[in-house]
Amino acid sequence: MTLAAVTEDTSLERALATLEWRLLEASRVELPELRQTTLPGGTMRFHYVVTGSLDLRTPGESLTLRAGDFVLLSGVAPHVVTAAEPAVVVTGALQCAGCDTTRLVGVLPDVLVACGFSTRDPDMAQLVEILVREVAGSDGRPGSSVIADRFATLIASAAVRSWAENGGALESWLVGQRDPHIARAIEAMRGDPGNAWTLESLARVARSSRSVFAGRFRELVGESPTRYLTALRMEQAERLLRSERLTIGEAAQRLGYGSDAAFSRAFRRHAGESPATWRRRALQPNP
Description:
Elements: H1 3-17, E1 21-31, E2 36-39, E3 44-51, E4 53-57, E5 62-66, E6 70-73, E7 79-83, E8 87-96, H2 101-107, E9 111-114, H3 117-120, H4 122-136, H5 144-165, H6 171-176, H7 180-191, H8 199-205, H9 210-221, H10 225-241, H11 248-254, H12 260-271, H13 275-282
Antiparallel strand pairs: 1-8, 2-7, 3-6, 3-8, 4-5, 4-7, 6-9
Helix pairs in contact: 4-5, 8-9, 11-12
Organism: Leifsonia poae
Domain HTH araC/xylS-type: 183-281
GO molecular function: DNA-binding transcription factor activity; sequence-specific DNA binding
């Protein structure tokens, strides 16, 4: 394991250690095909797809969730859930009790997707359903709410870890503690990865010269701004490709690539296969 990997693991552990979650509600819901539910903003929510698939739409994006996927929504905006096919979903509301919620929402994406959560963290996925049973049978049992909160903390923390391991980034949260100027540049890239960012424009965001910005960024993040931006775009590309509503060309355009060919080359370097091949494999139903 490289020094950078050790540092990244340690940083993630420190970040997760600050998170403590309180469960506000949880239930297991069966949704017939095309059932649509609109959920208001203002509350952090999660959905875990047990069977079937869901289309999830927010003001900023739309994506398809399949069996085994877990999604955590910041609660900033309302969202609409539609059963693309008959589905069973565990859904609930959370409150971050042991952290600065404003900072957390500013760093985590509005829609945090832990794709293949049941495969990556099978024990945690089982715990989601155990959580529902604990809530359903909690009437009159002492300590049930405390136990449910502990379960929620484990599940949500595992989802954040899965997201981070799959290309998500807590950098602006962690880096911001050491250099708020670099954190501003990271937040700008994460907020608009399709923008035609250059070293000069990012240095202006960070209120720094090009050379100082580039050196400080590499020191804190472990890679150049250009490599970080590419990795961020590929993270977003995987999410966009999981939506059947977007063509590959539309995904390329959203991410700032001037042509499908340029996007395909970047994605192939990232995933080892073309966007079309990756999409077909990702959209195959779970066995």
